[in-house]
Design a protein that fits this description.
By secondary structure, the protein is of the alpha+beta class. Helix content is about 25%, strand content about 30%.
Length: about 240
Amino acid sequence: MVSMKLFDSERRVIEAAERLATALGSDPNHTVAAAAMDTAGRIHEAVNVYHFTGGPCAELVVLGAAAAAGAGPLVTIAAAGDQGRGLIPPCGRCRQALLDLHPDVFVAVPTDDGPALRPVRMLLPDTYFFPDADARRIVRFNRRYYEAIATARKTSTVRYEDPIAPGPAIFLFEDDEAPRTLNGTVIGVERLRLDRLTAEQARLDGFTSIDQLKKGLQGHYPGLPSDAEVEFVTFTVEAPDAVQ
């Protein structure tokens, strides 16, 4: 599985969860901390509530805390255990709740090479989708693409293991000191092999050649196979004065 680069903002989410976990002490009722970031860059924190009747995990409590603060869709979430356990992955119930309520959230998980981010959909392949969740969608972009997208010079993107659904979405520009968003609509998603992308598709993505596009993808997805199945996504955006 190809891992994505962690931005400083995403590292802050992990650090917030780990910092709160170290402050939990020896209370057996609160053993896990979670932190989640919204599209405005705010980080919300919470801890689990252990109880024999099935008290909620920290990830579920932080969803409620974020909702109480008017957060909207969440971008990144991380959980950490007490007693020095560090970053821990979410349980099955939390994965399902995250997928239904925040289908575009990235989840921090521990790996042999350190923390990594996974789209929540990658943590639950072939799963059930709750049809009435009515969740706001997010599409992430690097901050350097803001002007090109806002002025419609860039109207597409190529993604790998980062499922995007057609329909209205918040376009989030990552790794920015003050996170910026645009209201947009995904109008098409075409799945094809990386080596079958065309020069016209590269142009729509804001590149001057197919080789430049592939080089950019390799930089964003280190280790991307040359014959990888990718998604070519086309979109439109509202006028810049509609920025949230």
